[in-house]
Amino acid sequence: MEDFHICPVTNYYKRVLLPVSYSLVFLLGLGLNSALLWRVLGRTRRRSSTVVYMTNLAVADLLYVLSLPLLIVADAMGGMWPFGNILCKTVRFFFFVNLHCSMLFLTCVSVHRFLGVCYPIAAVRLRTKRRAVFASGLVWTLANAEILPTLLFAHTGVINNMTVCFEMTNPGQFQVYFPYGLFLAIAGFLVPFIIVVTCYCSMIKALYCRAADRIFNAETVRVRKKSLHTLLIVCLVFVVCFLPYHIARLVYLFVRVYMPGNCNFLNVAMISFKVWKPVVSFNCCANPLLYFWGSDRNRRELRTWLWKRRTRVEPVVSLVDEDSMKRSSG
Question: Which terminal CB of the chain, N or C, has fewer other CB atoms within 10 Å?
Answer without folding.
Answer: C
